[in-house]
Design a protein that fits this description.
Chain lengths: ~190, ~190
DNA sequence: GTCTATAGAAAGATAGAC
DNA sequence: GTCTATCTTTCTATAGAC
């Protein structure tokens, strides 16, 4: 029976998230979706080609059906980072970071996809923030917000602790609002 | 010719850092230190046993010859986190985090070693901070500091950017000093 | 303690039948 | 599009000579 492409991609995402790029095998993936290994090569030329597909799906789910600019900047900002934080707590790890650490010059397509993935995150947050502050400030706060979320994820992964993530969300929102106020006074 | 145990461990660390637990092979390690693969099994019973050795060495290098309590708390705090930040920028990745993501219930010894590694980091920072603030506040600030450093490392790894790390160090120091001042006024 | 040699399993990927 | 079967390489780990 035909298996949907999205099933393969989202299953590959779980494998990459938990086992990393080199730890996830095509055989594991085939078993998980109910196919034989060779059938995967009909849809994807090789293992590396799964990486852009996995990250594109994740970007789509995070930013896809979002109507940019129709609401208050802070409502949008809070909604996005709380969605990201909730996913990171739920899954316990960041698939993007695991792939970032697990790819190298040996896997240039995967490496490029990882860069694009994080750049898209930064650009999206930055575009929300830049409505109420200069672009360079917005970019730094977007970067620091993502860094905080990634770092807090480490404590979820290692100790199962969610507290650091909650503080990361709260502090990032406070930092953004403070910057917005500062700039509006100039 | 005999190869020093420390040479094997520090070489294994570089392999784990860049390729992760499953991506690093015993053959790569043997080649890198100038031994045959089978000779490694004389010193280490298996690949997993390298993980505690790698993380213990790193802990020793970070906290080993440090005389706790002989100087001002903030001098010690700044010195430690700047050492960690400098290493993370220099190597481009955190071996602890790569191993945290790369180990699982299949590798319980490695998983335990990773937990101990991060707990030791948190305990060390927390013990410095708790000289001038309550232990629960100290623990949260220690956690957030480590999370910030880990998150900033992602931007070093992915984009080669060092700015986020510089801000992480600066903001962590400011946060600690602010908490110390607040508590001294109570 | 290091070596050669090898076992045994698992990896990525391909060929060809249906 | 999925399957069986296979190729080739690489993996962890062990046995035994020196």
């Amino acid at each position: 029976m035909k298996v949907l492409r999205e099933t393969i991609v989202s299953t590959a995402r779980e494998l990459f998230r938990s086992k990393g790029y080199s730890g996830a095998s095509m055989n594991d993936l085939a078993d998980a979706v109910g196919l034989k290994k060779s059938s995967l090569y009909v849809r994807f030329p090789n293992k590396e080609a799964l990486v852009p597909a996995v990250l594109d799906l994740t970007l789509q789910e995070t930013f896809g059906q979002r109507d940019l600019g129709s609401r208050q900047w802070d409502v949008e900002f809070i909604e996005v980072i709380e969605l990201i934080a909730a996913t990171l707590i739920d899954r316990g790890r960041c698939v993007g970071l695991h792939l970032a650490y697990g790819t190298s010059d040996d896997t240039p397509i995967a490496k490029d996809a990882v860069r694009a993935f994080f750049q898209a995150h930064r650009d999206h947050l930055s575009s929300i923030l830049s409505r109420v502050m200069p672009v360079d400030v917005a970019r730094d706060i977007a970067t620091d917000t993502l860094a905080r979320l990634e770092g807090a994820t480490a404590f979820v992964a290692i100790f199962g602790e969610k507290d650091a993530m909650k503080r990361a969300v709260r502090l990032s929102i406070e930092e953004a609002q403070k910057a917005a106020e500062t700039e509006s006074l100039v």
